[in-house]
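Tokens as discussed.
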């Protein structure tokens, strides 16, 4: 046994999920982005992409896995950054759960092809992946 003294008492409860442990002083802007695919819409999901686009989507998530929201906001919008898209510009059906969202957050997954969704805290809920340029909204 080491020479350190060990205090006895109640141990903190561990849920078994490492991700559940966060400090209360950390703001979400400094946390790494997390991705949710639960709300993807038919016609604009991973299964609607070509094999190459699926691989590019996976790489886009992989590249951003260690980025904070601040870093994503500061990156170029046509690179690893983001931009806001008014809900009125989205051509696809908006899921009821996001019916009150005024602006969706757009990130690029393959060149100029966007993924669009909603940021809630640290989590980016991806709703649409544009399979063909111009299908999701007018790129002007």
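Sequence:
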């Amino acid at each position: 046994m080491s020479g350190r003294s060990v205090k006895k008492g109640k141990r903190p409860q561990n849920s078994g999920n490492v991700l559940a442990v966060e400090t209360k002083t950390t703001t979400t802007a400094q946390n790494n982005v997390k991705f949710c695919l639960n709300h993807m819409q038919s016609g604009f999901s991973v299964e609607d992409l070509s094999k190459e686009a699926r691989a590019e989507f996976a790489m886009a998530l992989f590249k951003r896995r260690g980025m904070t929201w601040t870093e994503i906001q500061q990156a170029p919008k046509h690179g690893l950054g983001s931009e806001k898209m008014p809900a009125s510009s989205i051509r696809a059906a908006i899921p009821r759960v996001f019916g009150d969202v005024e602006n969706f957050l757009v990130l690029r997954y393959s060149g100029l092809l966007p993924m669009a969704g909603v940021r809630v805290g640290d989590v980016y809920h991806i709703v649409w992946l544009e399979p063909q340029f111009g299908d999701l909204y007018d790129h002007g």
